[in-house]
Batch of 2 targets.
Target 1
Amino acid sequence: MSFLQSWLLLGLPLALLPIIIHLINQWRFQTKHWGAMMFLLAANRMDRGYAKIRQWLILAMRVLAIAGLIFAISRPLASGLLGWSSGGKPDTTIILIDRSPSMQERSAGTETKLATGLRQMGSALGTLGSDRWLLVESGLSKPREFASLESLIDSPETSAASSTADLPKMLQATAEYLQTNRPGPTEVWICSDLRASDWKADAGGWNAIRDAFQQFPQSVRFSLLAYPSEDSSNIAVRVSDVRKLKTPEGNSVQLSIHVNGDVPIDGKRTVALQIELDGARTELAIEMVGRQYDLRNHIVPIGSAVQRGWGRVSIPADANNADNEFYFIFDDAPPRKTVLVTDAPPATRALEIAAGIAPDANTTATVEVTAPEQFDSLALDGASLLLWHAPLPSSQLAGAISEYVQRGGQVIFFPPDSLASGMTQVAGSAYAGVRWTKWESHDDKLMVENWRSDQDLLAATRSGAALPVGQLSILGHAKLEGEVSKLATLTGGDPLIARIPTDKGGVYFCSASPSATNSTLATNGVVLFAAIQRAIERGSAALGNAIWRAAGEIEDSTESWRRVAGGNETFSTEFGFQSGIYESTDRLWAVNRPLGEDEVTIVGATEVERLFDGLDFTRVDDEAGNLTSIVREVWRAFLITMIVAMLVEAVLCLPRRATRQSPSKSLAG
Amino acid sequence: MAVSERQRAFLDPLVLARLAAIPLASRRPMLGQVSGRHTSPHRGASVEFAEYRKYVPGDDLRRLDWRAYGRSDRFYVKEFEADTNLRLLAVVDTSGSMKFGSVGLSKFQYAQRLAASLAYLAVQQGDAVGLACVSAGIVHSIPTRRNPAHLTTLFDVLERATPGGPTQLASVLHELAETVRQRALIVIFSDLFIEPAELRSCFEHLRFRKHDVAVFHLLDPEELAFDFQRPTRFVDMEGGSSIFVEPSEIAQRYQRALETYLVELNRIVLETAVDYRRVSLSQPYETVLTDFLVNRAMIRSRR
């Protein structure tokens, strides 16, 4: 329970007034010499229990009446969110809104979780008040100040988005704001559905966030308005793959669609799937027998003149409409051009072969092999991947490569043969702060101890099978110096494949040479092939004209974007966070909800408690469409209590009705 | 009648003068030593016819009723009521509780007035008067005498008596019932703060000894009303423990206890034929005595 006028609670000791008066009355007793003691003794023995209880009851009722009055004028609030806090108006209130697609779930009500959360917070915070209002929404994850709570709640930035939320990032931004601005007592309100993909409970940043908040001198109170319930009837649809096919019969688009949702026990679920492509709609019914359904390689014919275009896959409305449609684009596959810079062509033959294989017959894959001294940055135009098997580039070339990376290009550096042959002078140059230091040959083969199979180049296949990275044998590797993220680690802790953090594109270092004398990368070529093909795929996707992006993960500027399809009410500033089809100068962008949004894993209550361990944290679970306010004034209850207490006191104080004539009256004559 | 040269505080000549007009009558026949105003159980020589009795040899022939002989041819002796004096024993409770009084007069002082006035009136009409001041036992005792000089002694004792100590009224009354040999009018002045059941046996004992018992039950208005406002520590005037009470809390129960006691006492005095007078100290003692005397006189006249 909290109080709007908590300072009035200072008057609570006044509730003890009846007791104090009673005690004073007891202290100022008179002494009387009395003859008729036998009646007093008899009276004392008579009904003593009830009389005592009555006296205490009267006293308790008086105390209750005063306490009730004080509580009533302190304007108490009933809310599990606020607990028994002292209340009072905070200096700053920061509202963290998770507006990810999962917050669009409606449950049994007609209102989404997001709308319910906003309404509840608007009502609650409107009652509590604050001097300053800030919003940290899940899109930009940056604090923005508003003049009033109403303008904050009505802001377009609190509308539903297709991007996932990053709660650690939002809290980090909150902590940075508090660190910079140092406001007074602060309330942080979080509205979220506790999806694991939004909360990233395993992220290492939580400890730093907790520490940051704990170190603030001012009080920071966290209130979580959670909507953890999920509607099991919800179905999500997603296009997992799109390819444009050119066949003698004509052009077509090959779609792979993934449907995710519960089905009744021992039953089937028929879902009407609608595919809209180039204005034409196709509807097909699919029968789900399990939670996952994959429609693979569904062919939709398109006109022969169509080079690129977009489409949409949708399913009928259900509990969450935000995951009922998915936009896709198609285009001619961009040429898969790889530039291989090598100082030892025989040693890099395996790289050339791996990069030169096209994934299908409609795609051409070319590899341009060049010596480092003949390398020209112009060769990177249209290239998806740069394989660098030579001493690290000079600063001039490094600049050109960085520009290439900024455009989305991919680079993999291999240790030069010269380093392997003992020429340590080549180790001097560096790229982005990372350089080769020396070559280490070992008599015993080194194995890969661990690798990242969840993402990046060495991720497991779509079927879930891991790449055979553990079967690789490394006879010699180059030592790396600089800040890198290890994707695969050799025995002893040195990286086999490492990545440099970049805004766009990808820069990798492979510490083993593909030469058969140094490793089995070439002979056991599955890992090398998969990694190179994935890098080419990413490069071509980034450099192509039809670009797929997850909402909220767009590094490019959206200023020049024009909406082709998607929500009509979306502001242009929100394009990067709303699913749809957008067009820039020469590119087509398909923006959809991130893959994690289809995961319905909820962060458990214990886990949430752990995340806020040591912080002043309160949680209240609400449901979408709930009309009961989470914070409401309950002074009436206290006023009624006071009145009841006064009435009971009055009844208890009433003298008992005399049933017989009083002895004193009988002697009147 | 000048029984004392000095003025006693508990005697008011004007009251006595007014009361002198009303005789003190006994409700039961008395066995006096001299002729008086009260009926005797024996036949005597008064003017009031009592009965005819068959002549037996030895009777005084002068008392034969010749007219009856003429009518019935039998010898009858005509007998008359005997008038005698009474013995009045005033039993004054001098226990500690009698010290209490909230109207400017303690119960003991009130009892002094009643007892002294009655004694004076009794002696004035030729009756013998005695006094017993009692508390834990018989503190002072004066046998019954009818000479006016005896009054001085009685008044002196009454004047010197001071209330104090616990009440043992029941045992004292039993003792008096045994020690007062001849029939007497025993008038008790007390607040009777003992259990009614104990009083019953006392009254029955006195009645068995053919005494005429009258009780002046003296109660202070404060004891009856119990209308205190502030918390009070009541100290027992008879030396018992003290009690701290919240009057507003206990008043109702006090009244209930008092009422129960009075109802029980009323029943007992009715059953034991005690001339019971409940007296509030706020009443003028003259009125109380007038009622007492008039009531008794009326009873006698009805007989």
Target 2
Amino acid sequence: MTNLPKTTFYETIFYRLRRGKDEAKRMMEKRKFRLGVFKYTCCAGCEFQLIYFQKHILEIFQNLEIVYFQMGDSNGKEEGPFDIVLIDGAITQAEQADQLKKVRQAAKFLLPIGSCAVNGGIPAIKNSTSELEIEQRVYQQIAPIHSMKAHPIDEYVRVDGCIKGCPMGEADLVEAVTSLLIGKQPNFFNYSVCVECKLKGNLCVLVAYKEPCMGPVTNAGCGALCPSYGRPCYACWGPMEDANAPALAQLFEKIGLSPDDIYRKFTQYGSPKSEFRKGAELYGSKT
Amino acid sequence: MYTDAFLIEKDQFSPWLEVLHQEFRLIGPIEENGFYTFAEIQSVRDLALNYDTTMLGPRKFIYHPEEKICAFRKTPEGFEIEPLGKAAPQILVGVHSCDLHAILVLDKVFLKKGFQDRNYRMWREATVIMGIHCTGVCPNCFCASMGTGPLFEPKEGYDFLLTDFGDRYLIELLGERAEKFILPLKLQRATESDFKKKQEIGRKVENQFKKKIDTTHLVDIILRNQNHPVWKRTAEELCLGCTNCTMVCPTCFCYNQKDEIGFDLIHYERKRYWDSCQELHFAQVHGGNFRFTRMARLRQFVTHKLATWVEQFGCFGCIGCGRCMTWCPTGIDLTEIAKEIMVTEQNKTIRMSEAQQFENG
């Protein structure tokens, strides 16, 4: 894992002051926001979701100028500069990391979109098995493969917020883009799925039916989609900050889940994140 | 205030509600997938007045989980605000004694202490409340210990109060609004013996409680033991930080606000939704977070309900409905926490008296 120095408090303050000035200038000029969308290791579902969302939020896209978006437009300018960059997918190759760092330098705001970019997501399931074994299972010739463990974006560069979800949630995306357009701090969902369930008045599937629901440790934003239909949450939004995964993992054991099942539950969507790793490590080990 | 009491046959009761239903939204307990829940009722037949408990109390129809507070619009000079939302007249049927007390607690928070909350007042005034006395206890409730049941004693907070006598209800009235509703029925007035019967039912229920808590020195004991090991142990081993306890608590009143930005970047809407002290960002202020650990958050919930609420509003924040422990995925029980602290206190006094005896020879 790359350990980059974290930004200090004063750096953040300077950054915000500078941002405020830039914002005022942009507003005066009525210039469009320059948008870049980059894709790394993922299924590209989030990018399709973005293309799909513009049906609803066409007004928002009127304020945006697409500078680089390979899925939507083949004549992009990769070097920027950008106002907003959305990053889709996890980092699994050294050259992806190199490009990501360059993009960060050319971008004013950089936001990872979707579980892969935010938490490692589905690609990070392979992190619990050794690289060679994984590669041999998929490819006959492993010589041209330069893959490494899957990492979320924020392990390589500073991010200005996360748009979670698998695929990314519309509410968070709209909040992020509109907030950046008017120059305010985006107000992301930062509580558990349980809150959304209670706000909707759903019966708790974990307590009432003893279903292994990941809701208590999962970040909200989906509108409690699965529990609303009586299904247990499977944590596609990734971990909530300061989630108590070990306590939930032990509860799953009491409900009757096997150690393997519990391990898979906590490594399916956010295995690089320490919140989930704590729960997974009680019931399995990393090779 | 006008008070009166009548007897109403059960055959007469449903048609009467049916008539009221034409004018009002009718809200009451219904059965859904084997569990009871408060919901808007389509037909009076769905009403399950013999329900035990619900996950969310009737508070969600007065103090809504999510509601729009105001809309504002950017103008060249600044911005214009317009308040949003109108209350629809509604009847809450079948509110248990604990939940009636919970509504009184919310009244203290939103209406009586200094600032009046516009939306809460609007919905509170538009709501006719019909309480009902429990005829049994739930596995987790302890209202008798908190002084909030099983019979509802205060002469405020409700319009009608029902007591089940088998084939008929004793219906107590409070206020002129209630009188107006019941006038066309021409009912038989309740007598002294009916009230005795009601007291008897109350006594019968009171003897069934399994969960109890001694509240005599509770406030002092909790405040003295803020560093007791029980807090840390429960927070680390059991508490998920999922906020279920505060979401289902009928007296929790915290909310958070969120601005929804219109796509044209000119129109905005301000929404409020239930917030929870069990959530990490609740205590996030400029310069840091003053309840950074899960232990501090769990301790805040229990201490507020059982101790500091008394100083703040003059009553306990806990009304003994037992929802927080029923709907906690890991079953954290605030009475067990309080009891563990009390046991340590008792041992301490015993040890101290023993030491004194030893000194005295």
